[in-house]
Design a protein that fits this description.
heterohexamer; A alpha/beta; B mainly alpha; C alpha/beta; A: alpha/beta; five-stranded parallel beta sheet; two-stranded antiparallel sheet; about 20% helix; about 20% strand; B: three-stranded parallel beta sheet; about 40% helix
Chain lengths: ~140, ~120, ~100, ~120, ~140, ~100
């Protein structure tokens, strides 16, 4: 999806990055270009997680079909995040509720757990607003989109 | 820096912030231009004479303080900001990158996050 | 001749949707496009407001934008009617002027 | 058309709308690009191969249907969209206007409002 | 402020244009570029009026001072609108109220009434939301910013 | 170490301000910049909410942005403290991370 580059910094640095997604997909490009940041970050072996809140929860909606608007449907890429070493995707419950969305309306995103014989495990964790605030407070870097 | 010049204040705010940080004696490891922010890096802009020239402001600040102004290559290609090498590679007959800006990959943003003590995002 | 109002932003993100509703006159039409389509979801915080507005104004949702966001007619308030880009053009023709609540 | 390509959907929406209007047999008197909308008119954009190229889409639609695509001169100067004449006039060494687009004044927007039966604004 | 061009269309066409201003100044350029449209429109002898609602009412706030943000203060231009044949500037009362603004917080904008010996008269009319909706419904063209 | 939250959009236009308030933890700071400064007006629809938040978080307003919009300290809720760009830099240094509610 984008050029991979070798990190040029001290490889022992490991920071917690949280990509904070708050916008609906397609109306603006932020969702897509945020995803490109996450894919690139895998090459740097950082502790990268993603948060979806406010209209950002629509990025994970099932069944996106963009044929009618002439834009590329990039939602399948979210399903590949497990392969990019992403292990934490947080979705805010209150944001879902306000929008009349249930967790079942979101795509299933899994990763293969090496420690348990590559068993498929869900990547999405539904968290409360208070929990998400706590998670944000534990990060080194917040990438805002 | 996530927004282009003039339409949103983000470029002005980031510029004022960087200038103030330098005046306070802080080091600016990098300014990364992403999304429409890449449009700050075109040397073709000609704002009215009574208005600020944001590209020149950034270029001059970069020259004075040896700032590393990085334009995201993927975002820049989408929006038509090219250096000579990129222009040649894509068969374009012109380029428009401004002095003091360089085009590089998104990894430079992650790297900046790893190296710098603080990362601040300006956008819409 | 009535006015066509377009809203292209989510009511969860911006107040443009509310502004549009506040300025629509009986017989006007509202067309929700781009991220604005999410405002027509049933069971959302804005559903009652939209149902109420539908008593005096027609409510349209651009179908291609709805599909892009993973939704279909069944996800919307009952008053919402789907149109495609051709239908959007027809609405512009049928109304004297278009107010885009950007 | 008030927004640039890719960052906001406005350019896509306007393009789909214009195409549908032409298919319905309507006449498009003019498409006026204002604010960041002027950035649709740069021929330097190189989007990913699996993505649409909005400049080419507009240019091709213009060629097929003899559309008048007007880029606002004042807005274009601020943002670095120039034709050869503008580039020369301002001492710039390159221009970037795309085929099918022409640079002209804001009066063209008022004129379009006077002549056309309907005016629709796409933006952020 | 911008190049003036001679109209090239049937000069007898006279339409009602309303410039609808809904954004605060400086945070985005829409206020400034909307003003440029109004100034240009004078050359076309159309019936041009302006509406300020939502955050657009901040465009008319008194005492704007932009020295600290490095941007040009274009608010004095609003005071010259009378010279550009603008005769109707509508400000929505409900938008003022919600923002804790009073009409006295706005700049004084006047025009010289030729019919009454060039007496200075106020250009701003405070209107209710219902009145503004009615005014919008009377226009031929709505220019949205 | 607490978080600095920046809000650059008017609460009358976007929900980012409310989102910021909803996610701030005791001891965090809120800095209102660009069009966001209008959210600190006293007697506005958001004044009570902001005063309430000020019980647990510091509220800052970027003075140059305030002046550009024709306002001064007297127009703001009492809890709001003015800073310049240098003060903005200091706030970034004093907090472990910055969350920009774009």
């Amino acid at each position: 999806m984008a050029d991979v580059q070798a990190p040029r910094v001290d490889a022992s640095v490991k920071k917690r990055f949280l990509c904070v997604n708050r916008k609906a997909p397609y109306g603006t490009i932020y969702a897509l270009e945020a995803l490109e940041v996450v894919l690139i970050s895998a090459a740097f072996e950082q502790d990268v997680s993603l948060a979806f809140l406010d209209d950002g929860v629509f990025q994970l909606a099932k069944g996106q079909s963009t044929a009618g608007i002439g834009m590329k449907n990039f939602s399948p890429t979210y399903k590949a995040l497990g392969d990019y070493e992403v292990r934490k995707i947080y979705v805010e419950k209150e944001s879902l509720d306000e929008r009349g969305l249930a967790p079942a309306d979101l795509m299933e995103i899994t990763y293969e757990d090496e420690a348990e014989g590559f068993a498929e495990k869900p990547l999405i964790r539904i968290v409360s607003r208070a929990e998400l605030s706590e998670i944000m407070a534990q990060q080194d870097i917040l990438l805002n989109f | 820096m996530n927004e282009g010049p003039y339409t949103h204040q983000a470029s002005d705010s980031a510029y004022q912030f960087v200038k103030a940080a330098l005046e306070r004696g802080h080091e600016i490891f990098r300014v990364f231009f992403y999304h429409d922010g890449v449009n700050n890096g075109t040397r073709l802009m000609v704002p009215p004479q009574d208005d600020r020239n944001l590209q020149q402001a950034w270029s001059q600040l970069a020259e004075k303080h040896q700032l590393d102004l990085v334009v995201c290559i993927a975002a820049a290609q989408r929006r038509g900001v090219l250096d000579a090498g990129e222009a040649k590679r894509h068969g374009k007959d012109a380029d428009n990158i401004a002095p003091g800006f360089r085009i590089s990959g998104l990894g430079q943003l992650i790297e900046a996050g790893m190296v710098a003590d603080r990362l601040v995002v300006f956008g819409d | 001749m009535p006015t066509l109002h377009t809203v292209n932003k989510s009511p969860f993100e911006r107040s443009a949707f509310i502004s549009a509703l506040n300025h629509m006159r009986p017989g006007d039409a509202l067309l929700m496009i781009e991220d604005g389509v999410v405002g027509a979801r049933k069971a959302s915080a804005f559903a009652a407001l939209l149902e109420n507005a539908s008593q005096r104004c027609a409510i349209y949702v651009l179908a291609p934008d709805l599909a892009a966001r993973g939704m279909a007619e069944k996800d919307l308030v009952p008053a919402a009617k789907l149109v495609d880009y051709g239908g959007f053009v027809d609405l512009v023709v049928q109304h004297a002027r278009t107010q885009a609540w950007l």
